[in-house]
Specification:
Radius of gyration: 20 Å
Order of helices and strands: HHHHHHHEEHHHHHH
Largest sheet: 2 strands, antiparallel
Distance between the termini: 20 Å
Structural class: mainly alpha
Oligomer: single chain
Number of strands: 2
């Protein structure tokens, strides 16, 4: 099993895929005239708009739903991996990748809006939809869209929750001595209550949970910086001095890859 997973990993997360993602970010940033900066004021305005309909969720709920999958293991492990591989300078390249990635993320979000459909009173959309319809609903498009949907269900429905739930169960057991089986049952019940309610319940749950989770995440980072404020100038100097070493570049790329996957 380990050899199989490693073989699949080496194909999927090859250097070519990472370079393609970076080039896509550069391309879409240029084509949209750096929308991630130019439209920042509009983004914040729409984010704070609480309007929603019976068919969909509000902008803030959508933001929280997306953010729920970004804060956690991947961010912490990704940064640690980047620094371990490329030193402090790798952080500079993680910043750059995040900035450029906002360009391709904007393009993906736009496609999701263009090709979404109404189904049983709610909106449905995403990559599987715009892959199929954007390519003209050809045989290739249908097969590619179906493959993407299947892989997404396996990754998001099985593999990713497995990693997160395992981390939670281990942490609860080491802290409170609670059996991992009991923790697993509790997580399954709570997750089922939210997920089986559809996107509206997911959005409502995310709207309630994510601000607290994100706030605590940021607060912890701020406290760590304040406690070590004397080291901040040295850290920033090391980041920018080491940014243009080759190992820093690849360390940043690898760290961002871990964050994407986590």
């Amino acid at each position: 099993m380990e050899k199989l997973i490693t073989s699949i990993y080496n194909v999927i997360w090859s250097n070519w895929l990472v370079y393609l993602c970076l080039l896509s970010g550069v391309y879409f940033s240029l084509r949209t005239k750096f929308s991630q900066v130019r439209n920042l004021k509009t983004m914040v305005k729409l984010l704070l708009n609480g309007e929603k309909s019976e068919e969909g969720i509000s902008s803030f709920q959508g933001f929280c739903t997306a953010l729920a999958g970004r804060i956690g293991t991947g961010n912490i492990a990704g940064v640690a991996t980047a620094i371990a591989w490329g030193g402090p300078g790798a952080l500079f390249w993680m910043w750059a990748i995040a900035f450029l990635g906002a360009g391709s993320a904007f393009a993906e979000s736009t496609l999701g809006q263009l090709y979404k459909e109404q189904h049983e009173g709610q909106y449905r959309g995403g990559p599987a939809y715009y892959i199929e319809k954007g390519f003209g609903e050809t045989g290739f498009a249908k097969a590619y869209g179906l493959l993407f949907a299947i892989v997404t269900v396996i990754a998001i429905g099985i593999l990713l929750p497995g990693v997160q739930s395992n981390s939670i169960a281990d942490a609860v057991k080491s802290s409170f001595g609670l059996s991992t089986t009991v923790t697993a049952v509790i997580l399954v019940v709570l997750t089922g209550i939210v997920v089986l309610g559809g996107i509206k319940r997911i959005g409502s749950a995310a709207e309630f949970i994510v601000p607290f989770m994100g706030g605590l995440y940021i607060l912890m980072a701020v406290i760590i910086i304040i406690v070590n404020i004397g080291q901040l100038p040295t850290v920033l100097a090391q980041i920018f001095k080491g940014a243009f070493r080759l190992d820093a570049t690849f360390g940043g790329i690898f760290g961002s890859t871990v964050a994407w996957g986590g």
